Amino acid sequence: MNEHLKIVGFPSVGKSTLLSELTTTRSETAAYEFTTLTCIPGVLEHEGANIQLLDLPGIIEGASQGKGRGRQVIAVAKTADLILMMLDAVKALLEQELEAVGIRLNKRPPHIYLKQKKVGGVKFTHTLPLTHCHEKLVMTILHEYKIFNADVVFRDDCT
To answer: What's the rounded Cα separation, in Å, for the pair 106 and 57?
Structure first.
């Protein structure tokens, strides 16, 4: 697959219908919420590219705290190259639920500069207070990627 697009939204906003219209996959639809209980994959071929679409179960309010399989759905959404957010005008909480777990919609990535060095350990610099991310967490992430010497400059707050 070239790209992975995840379809995210509250229950009964048309995610399964869209998947069925764009791909050869037939995702079950019904007039009640929570028809889709698992991730349903489909493939869209466009100008020589294969784009995997994934119809995710509906997100409910409190999903970022784990309600309604929210953590599992959001974990899958985090692996997307692109998130297609299906909206219903009366259900405005979806963006809040996604942002609560660090998925930023229609926003540029935070400006963080990382330069690896051969020696000297890790040096942190930030041009504003970090309210969501702490040096200990960044050190853990750097060590997971086997980075032990680097200059890290935060020009934006991040999660």
So the answer is: 22
Cα–Cα distances (Å) from 52 to 1, 38, 150, in that order, read: 6, 16, 36
Cβ contact 151:121 at 8 Å: no
pLDDT of 32 over the 60 cut: no
Q: Is the dihedral of CA 70, 39, 53, 75 positive or negative?
A: positive
CATH number of 3-99: 3.40.50.300
Q: Do residues 32 and 12 touch, judged by C-beta distance below 8 A?
A: yes
> Which sequence spans correspond to the domains of the chain?
3-99, 112-154
Taking only the tens place, the pLDDT of each residue in 39-86 is 788 888 888 888 888 888 888 778 778 777 777 878 888 888 888 888
Structure token pair of residue 92:
């405005």
Tally the residues of the chain. Answer: 159
pLDDT over 90 at 118, yes or no: yes
Complete DSSP assignment for 87-131: --TT-TTHHHHHHTTT--SS-PPP-EEEEE-SSS-EEEEESS--S
